[in-house]
Write a structure and sequence with these properties.
Structural class: alpha/beta
Strand order of the largest sheet: 5-2-1-6-7-8
Strand content: 15-25%
CATH architecture of the largest domain: 3-Layer(aba) Sandwich
Helix content: 25-40%
CATH superfamily of the largest domain: Crotonobetainyl-coa:carnitine coa-transferase, domain 1
Number of helices: 19
Largest sheet: 6 strands, parallel
CATH topology of the largest domain: Rossmann fold
């Protein structure tokens, strides 16, 4: 069975994470993604970031399955080549600062005149216009300004960021969704469109019910560590050899937990018999539970908790996370052989389609690796013309 997006061609002007993650997801769904790189290459190639044998694992991750062509868009000849690629493509994605598309003459009015079916998707920091359009939009900046640092970490401690570049990745998540919707719309209308998402907007959206609660009730959330503002117990507990999380969302889970802990009397204690009472008496209950949990190892507790169907899990490091049974069962590690660093293993595709057994996993491209082949195969340029363009510095 063919992949869902087989036959869709994406031109990626994006860099680092926000402009590359969404199109990487599209490659897992079958799209062909061509990176249009400057002669210096995607900034995500900088080898000092997550270095491995002289190459950034950031680049190895977010550019799996892609092809690389180097075109200098600041030259007339380079823009002409890009325009020719637009004629035979479906999507153009970028994460440029405001005004760059216009300066490079690759804005939507220009591209749609060349190919009315083209979809252009821009990932911005704060939008392409407005008061903050020119602000630098690094992941830490967006996590801070969108409120995440104020709700992450332990109470009374300095602000903490989410451990993954969530703001950058939100740009990829929402750009992918936008592109899929635009492709569906084009099936009905026959016309392309311009779509835009901002990292700031995405992070506000991901605040979800916490944002709703503040905007509606006016209550500011505070950092809770692993605990929950509205449910007790719901947190990590220290055990003999690490930590275990327990999440008793429903009262039946609380009662089962008390049996597992061999303290069934806690379930009916008038201080703890309902979640509102447990919230009110959190400062009394949690130390009691902590003392009990420290008496056994993680494995001992988890065997009992799983058997009683109490929501619980070990607090894994990555070695533990990637050793859990669903990883192998659901093909959540993929790999490829890279010509410079050898075998590369990385998290797999979480989207599963019936009839498609394997996730495609091709190496992240070398800079300009596919330049000649793409110009020859897509644009039918003869070898002499390709050599001439290289000599002029238009391609690399």
């Amino acid at each position: 069975m063919p992949h869902a997006l087989q036959g869709v061609r994406v031109l990626e002007l994006g860099q680092i994470i926000a402009g590359t993650y969404g199109s990487q997801v599209l490659t897992d769904l079958g799209a062909e993604v061509i990176k249009i790189e400057t002669p210096e290459g995607d900034l995500g190639r900088i080898p000092s970031v997550a270095p491995y044998r002289g190459i950034s694992t950031l680049f190895l991750t977010f550019n799996r399955n892609k092809k690389s062509i180097v075109i200098n868009l600041k030259t007339d000849e380079g823009r002409a080549l890009f325009y020719d690629l637009v004629k035979v493509s479906d999507v153009v994605i970028d994460n440029f600062r405001a005004g760059v598309l216009e300066r490079l003459k690759v804005d939507y009015p220009t591209l749609s005149a060349i190919n009315p079916r083209i979809i252009q998707c821009s990932v911005t920091g704060f939008g392409s216009d407005g008061a903050y359009k020119d602000f630098p939009a690094l992941d830490l900046v967006i996590q801070a300004i969108s409120g995440y640092l104020s709700i992450t970490g332990e109470p009374g401690r300095p602000p903490a960021r989410v451990g993954i570049p969530l703001a950058d990745m939100s740009g990829g998540i929402f750009s992918c969704k936008a592109i899929l919707a635009a492709l569906y719309q084009r099936e009905r209308t026959g016309k392309g469109c311009r779509v835009e998402t901002s990292m700031f907007d995405g992070m506000l959206n991901l605040l979800s019910y916490m944002g709703t609660h503040y905007l509606t009730a006016g209550e500011l959330p505070k950092p809770q560590g692993t605990a929950h503002e509205f449910t007790v117990p719901w947190q990590a507990f220290a055990v003999k050899d690490g930590y275990v999380v327990i999440a008793t969302r429903q009262e039946n889970f609380w009662k089962k937990l008390c049996v597992v802990l061999e303290h069934p009397e806690l379930a009916d204690d008038p201080r703890f018999s309902t979640n509102p009472l447990r919230l009110e008496n959190r400062a009394t209950l949690v130390p009691l539970l902590e003392n009990i949990m420290r008496q056994k190892t993680a494995r001992e507790w988890l065997e009992k908790l799983y058997a009683a169907e109490v929501p619980a899990a070990p607090v894994n490091n990555l070695d533990g996370a990637f050793s859990e049974p669903p990883v192998a069962e659901r093909e959540m590690i993929v790999e490829y052989d890279h010509p410079q660093v050898g075998r590369v293993r990385m998290p797999g595709n979480p989207i599963k389609f019936d009839g498609i057994a394997k996730t495609t996993s091709n190496p992240a491209p070398l800079l300009g690796e596919h330049t000649d082949a793409l110009l020859r195969d897509l644009l039918s340029l003869p070898a002499a013309r390709i050599a001439e363009l290289r000599q002029l510095g238009v391609i690399k």
